[in-house]
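Appendix B. Raw example, untouched.
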Amino acid sequence: MKRNPVPRAILWAWLFGLLACGLTACKPGSAPSGETATGPKRVAVVISTLNNPWFVVLAETARDRLRERGYEATIFDSQNDPAKEAAHFENIIASGYAAILFNPTDADGSIANVRKAKDAGIPVFCMDREINATDAAVCQILSDNYSGAVAIGQYFVKVVGKEGKYVELLGLVGDNNTWNRSKGFHSVVDRYPGLKMVAQQSADFDRARALEVMEAILQAHPDIDAVFCGNDAMAMGAYQALAAAGKADKVKVFGFDGAEDVVRLIAEGRIAATGMQFPKVMARTAAEYADQYLKGRRDFPQKVPVAVELVTPENVHLYQGYGRKE
């Protein structure tokens, strides 16, 4: 029995359908714009280091707000290593994430990573730390570090006086936050010739490193009156060194961040002051901006400043770790 041939038009339609399927949705493992084949879009949270509770709060707050918005969020720890950060970006780009919330390791060195993501069509939103480019990230949500350090400098002069010897512990030398805080502080204290900085050294924003650096400085300068630290992790390390040397009640320690342990020590009268940053505000803003971008918004400001507030024994009752009391 002779079969009727399949009409040529139907054959061509079938062949074109197979070809289209192979190139798009039917291709194994394919998913549009960061959306997994069986789930929500994925957003990466790339953090400079998780070896600091402040950055853990930044990372987890960003992750949690993204999940509230319906995204799958993954945290990547760069361990303050630009090479690890670059590897994270390569992985994120190859894996097809939809967006990146980014806390850079280096203001200059991290630019290339952001540009690679942009070229791949993945928007990047910087949190807390900036990059020295205004055409790479969609938006940068940053603490007003300079103004916050100016306020610390003013309180430093009030507490320490117009004469004395002090030490400054700097953060990472490749991070703009390090220099904005230092410049803001010195814009005040350098007006007083009687205030002598006897040592200035980087401790990489790290508590253990600050302990080592402070111990060495105390050997050379045992008669200092104060220490200004570029973040609270270093303030805790410096305080630990001073306590071990029996000088904690004689040397005033000033930090910057608003970390929980430093807020507690301010309340106990053991640390003089800190600058309260708001990591939860920055993280939530970045997550919400990413959500808005993925839903079509494009009119974002390049930089969004977040005010830093001075925390002292006089007003510490208003604060808790990483923000104001709710």
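End of appendix B.
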